Amino acid sequence: MKVEDSKFVKDFIKLTYDAWLKGWHERNGGNLSYRISEDEIKGVEEELDQNSEFISIGVSVPNLANEYFLVTGSGKYMRNVKLAPKANIGIVKIDGNGENYKKVWGLLNGANPTSEFPSHLMSHSVKKEITDGRNRVIYHAHATNLIALTFVLPLDSRVFTRELWEMATECPVIFPSGIGVVPWMVPGGTAIAKETSKLMREFDVVVWAHHGVFAAGETLDSAFGLMDTVEKSAEILVKVLSMGGKRQTITASDFRDLAGAFHVTLPEKFLYEK
Ligand code: 2HA
Ligand code: ZN
């Protein structure tokens, strides 16, 4: 099968365009990676070029050895992926040590994987380990309202989680483990990759202060849906704060009732009395 005809590539492209329409991907902002399954890669094997050079990743991810990833290109625009997939996204293969990658499809004209590839791969590494391989997607967006909140709320996971849970009843059910927060750091490097992947042990959503958000998911739909839910909740909070703040809200004891009814575990550290 042609790479561009396979379902995982079509689903990946759909996410990039939906996300552009959301307004989260100005210029080359944001990036996406998908860990391809063995069956999916077998289906497109004939179109892969295994002869390219290995390039250093900059981080070590031994449990991703020999895995294939579909990834957006560095400097590429989400809005252009749909128009010219082969120039804007590509498939890379990790080497047997988890320290180098090579391009096997796409990323035409010398393009490289996203500048945030270290953060993507270190987060994939953690998520693969703790979900028994079920997690396949890491998605970074410049979600407007979440970024705005990082200028106003304390940069504390307990506060972000609790405030965003309060903004829509379904939130604690969609992200019961809460939201991690990384203080401002230089993007694109290994330090922010380490910090993000550490938080990915506990959370599926990690906010980068004054920059954006990382979301993890088993499918492209679930990662996008998670980003969409968290950003919607942030939008409501921005509106509420702009209207002078809450007059009433969902209480800690309401959340305990919700947890019982929906069979989710909500960590008590987020249900503090205010
Ligand atoms: O891809 O979003 O964080 C550009 C970025 C860097
Ligand atoms: Zn970014």
TrEMBL record:
<keyword id="KW-0862">Zinc</keyword>
<feature type="active site">
    <location>
        <position position="116"/>
    </location>
</feature>
<keyword id="KW-0684">Rhamnose metabolism</keyword>
<comment type="similarity">
    <text>Belongs to the aldolase class II family. RhaD subfamily.</text>
</comment>
<comment type="function">
    <text>Catalyzes the reversible cleavage of L-rhamnulose-1-phosphate to dihydroxyacetone phosphate (DHAP) and L-lactaldehyde.</text>
</comment>
<keyword id="KW-0456">Lyase</keyword>
<feature type="binding site">
    <location>
        <position position="140"/>
    </location>
    <ligand>
        <name>Zn(2+)</name>
    </ligand>
</feature>
<keyword id="KW-0963">Cytoplasm</keyword>
<comment type="pathway">
    <text>Carbohydrate degradation; L-rhamnose degradation; glycerone phosphate from L-rhamnose: step 3/3.</text>
</comment>
<dbReference type="Pfam" id="PF00596">
    <property type="entry name" value="Aldolase_II"/>
</dbReference>
<protein>
    <recommendedName>
        <fullName>Rhamnulose-1-phosphate aldolase</fullName>
        <ecNumber>4.1.2.19</ecNumber>
    </recommendedName>
</protein>
<dbReference type="InterPro" id="IPR036409">
    <property type="entry name" value="Aldolase_II/adducin_N_sf"/>
</dbReference>
<feature type="binding site">
    <location>
        <position position="142"/>
    </location>
    <ligand>
        <name>Zn(2+)</name>
    </ligand>
</feature>
<feature type="domain" description="Class II aldolase/adducin N-terminal">
    <location>
        <begin position="10"/>
        <end position="238"/>
    </location>
</feature>
<feature type="binding site">
    <location>
        <position position="211"/>
    </location>
    <ligand>
        <name>Zn(2+)</name>
    </ligand>
</feature>
<keyword id="KW-0479">Metal-binding</keyword>
<dbReference type="InterPro" id="IPR001303">
    <property type="entry name" value="Aldolase_II/adducin_N"/>
</dbReference>
<dbReference type="InterPro" id="IPR013447">
    <property type="entry name" value="Rhamnulose-1-P_Aldolase"/>
</dbReference>
<dbReference type="InterPro" id="IPR050197">
    <property type="entry name" value="Aldolase_class_II_sugar_metab"/>
</dbReference>
<dbReference type="GO" id="GO:0008994">
    <property type="term" value="F:rhamnulose-1-phosphate aldolase activity"/>
</dbReference>
